[in-house]
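Lay summary. Proteins are chains of building blocks that fold into shapes, and those shapes determine what they do. In this project we predict the shape from the chain. Here is one chain we studied, written as its sequence of building blocks.
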Amino acid sequence: MIKLFVDSGSSIKQEEKERYDVEILPLKIMIENREYLDGVDLSMEDFYHYLIDENIFPKTSLPSPGDTREKVMKCVEEGYDVIILSLSSGLSGTFNMMRTMFADVPSVCVIDTKTAVGGIRILVEEVNKYRDKSLDFVRAKLSSLIYRIRVIAIPDTLAYLHKGGRLSRSAWVAGSIMQVKPLIIVDSKTDGGVKVVGKALGKKNAMRSLAEYLIKENCDTDYSIVPSYTYNSRNLDELISLTDDKYKSAMTEYDNLDPAIACHWGPGAFGYIFVSKE
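And here is the predicted shape, written in a compact code that computers can read:
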């Protein structure tokens, strides 16, 4: 049997662990010299108080190596095969840390998902179809699915991408003045990194472009579409109202992204995570 681990870059909440049958390895968040565990001891309310009211940009870091090793090896000693679905190596050093940590443990498979948040949720759902299969079988299933997952989103403000070092100052200033909204994608084509795939003048036009991206990328409604947002869902509600009805039945409940990811997008970001057809 397989035990499944994810890091909190999956945005799977602690209260969802049993539903998804996963163990969550929390990323760390540093705010004013105090360290928090993502999704464990920092509430959404406190996080956004620091981010918005206090204008404090958090620093994020990898899950605890010691805690990770202890939890995973306990499962190995109990006779389980272990799969770890890590936040994309294009966004975090988590994959490389864990790959090195378990390089000498053949029953542990560390997978670079090339995605984040709802993309990892979709991979978890795939693993849950095959828990009784071999490690090699499940790894092959995941490998064929990873290259089809798309994360497409729009930040409400470019300030936080700039603060996090993912956008130059000139691009931030120009975009803010012109009210240009970038469509940002994370997928295997970008090697799991962040890439701007389009720009629109104004939020409404950007929403229409994002809604049309489901058509452009031939969204496969046999898989979940994960509607995601940060802070509040007003922008996401409007995006869904502009989206073709044929996709709405595949949508899961909204995902309010965990702090470790949300801090880079800022409040009011919104988007879809989905699977394109082969």
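What the prediction tells us: The chain has a mean pLDDT of 92.
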